[in-house]
Amino acid sequence: MMNCYRIPEMAQKYIDYDMIQKYTELPQFPEIRTRILYAFLNKNNVLQQYSELFSLVTSLVQLGLDTHDTVSITNQAKDMKSARSRQIKVLAGDYFSARFYYLLAEAGHIAMIGTLSDAICEANRLKIVFYQTIKGLSMTSEEYVAQSVEIRSRIYMAFSKLMDESLNKVWPEILRLFTQCELLLQEIVKPEKQQLPDSWSFGYMLQQVSKEERRNMQLEEPDPSKVRSIWMKYNISSQLYQLLEITTRQLKDKLQTLDNKELSQELISIGEPFERYLSTPKVLEEI
Questions:
Q1: N or C: which terminal CB in the chain sees fewer CB atoms within 10 Å?
Q2: pTM summary value
Q3: pLDDT (tens digit, 9 = 90+) per residue, 87-119?
Q4: What is the DSSP string of 158-170?
């Protein structure tokens, strides 16, 4: 029998610290990926009894990686508040990773520690390749999506080889589509990110712009107003909305083909926030 999903509440024990709340801000909890992992584990005869533990530690690992990703490369904070925020992010990321080791070791799942550790190493390797390409300002929008999705889903993909054959066949594609929807929605709702080199919008604009516009974008410190002007000219919001609509439709079509109808309905409900967002009047005007 399926347990009630309560991973975010369980994670609060390790996340909700006064020091973190006071001095810094954590990345968004990886809710969608964790929910679909939990749903799949609950349909696996062998892994079902560990669904909460494995989903919890995976979410903590991902949150730890995401927290470290928000730490500035240089330690040149201009004030004490910024310096303290940077320090807390480093420590928080380390702490979340340490909890994953502790919780699995305490439960006797030593092999799973190795499985997730290998996934962490691979995710970090993929990030190095990703940021090297970003630095060279040569990443296309398609490459940005593909590589970002691969990085974000790598920890969760570690469970593929542990699942029943019937689940393993569909898990990678469903995880990819959910992660891509999550990525695109995040790109849309963070307009300030759309002007940065590590964004879909930046890669898309580089493919479309004139030589003069490209020179402006490739400056070490591009003029935000000029980049914003280019962003408006090429109707980036509409492009993102349409890409999210296509991916959401592909996801729903895929979920409706699953043999396990109970799992299918559960996953469709998890994907409902994407459809609700796309049905808002402002978005419908852009699509």
A1: N
A2: 0.88
A3: 777 777 788 888 999 999 999 999 999 999 999
A4: TTGGGS-HHHHHH
